[in-house]
Amino acid sequence: MTKALVLGGSGFVGRALLTALGSDAVGAHHSRPWPGSIPFDATRDDLAALLDRAGEGISRLYLLHGAANPEICAQDPVGTAAINVVSVKRMVADAVARGILPIFVSSDYVHDGTRGGRTEVEPLTPITEYGRQKAEVEEWMASLDRPWLVARLSKVVSEAECAHSVLGQLVPQIRGGATLRMATDQIFSPAHVDDVARALAELPLRGARGVVNVAGPVAWSRYDLTACLLAAIRRRDPTVTATLVPCSLRDIPFREQRPLNTSLDTTKLHSLLPWRFRPMEEVCERIAEAAFGPTRE
Ligand SMILES: NC(=O)c1ccc[n+]([C@@H]2O[C@H](COP(=O)([O-])OP(=O)(O)OC[C@H]3O[C@@H](n4cnc5c(N)ncnc54)[C@H](OP(=O)(O)O)[C@@H]3O)[C@@H](O)[C@H]2O)c1
């Protein structure tokens, strides 16, 4: 395989993916350019224009761009579908016609959350607009008569303090002594962004095709994951006053009811990769160490 083009390269996962791919990749931005990135407006641009900008030899097209916030999708179903569904289908159709492998990054929100450990072959049952948009693309891709890959992600975490980084975003709140209300009934399969990126980079080269759950091997509740981070931080700074309060996901006033248990079965992923995703305990230690220094014990 030769070069990869990453749509959504300026995003949380896209940046890590470009690092994992190294010099074999070109990234596209929408509003946040960086040196070497190419401009991309999903509502306007077609693949031909992007390939002109990206240069010769693109054989893999990663599609990570779009509105990744379920609240925004619920608020503007038509506007977000234009990017998350219409532009993705257009790009994928054009890619397969040119013999380029499309790699679509989907979400555990394609499931209704009534039980966890979902495999890749179970029927899709989304209950949110974001999940329906992801499911629509997945189901359409399954009808393609050329090779394709769908990577279904669960929650992605890192030390970054941006909105999409489930753990890192808590660090400023913990520093400020906040009360953290976390759902005990929201269960997912968290994975560190660098592991997700490495898997996304390697899977196509290892021959993965169809749907693959790209997620951590252990299901965590949001409450337990936050408790793990808080404990790691307290080992470094016992004076931290932040408190953790259990709640239900149903107590949080979202526009739509959210799926409760979206944890994923990762048997297929493990059969494809010779290495394992790092455990969340290790990730929490690393985040705590970066933010609060070494342990005091
Ligand atoms: N993060 C997670 O925990 C998670 C979990 C499950 C699935 N996913 C999926 O993984 C993918 C990446 O997620 P992420 O967290 O990296 O999202 P993100 O940080 O919000 O990145 C979104 C990307 O889409 C680009 N974009 C937005 N609107 C665009 C438009 N109109 N035209 C072209 N590009 C546009 C953004 O470009 P600019 O920044 O340059 O504007 C950015 O590069 C998404 O498909 C998401 O659904 C993520």
From TrEMBL:
It comes from the Bacteria. It holds the Pfam family RmlD_sub_bind. Residues 3-285 form the RmlD-like substrate binding domain. InterPro entries: RmlD-like-bd (IPR029903). This is Sugar nucleotide-binding protein.
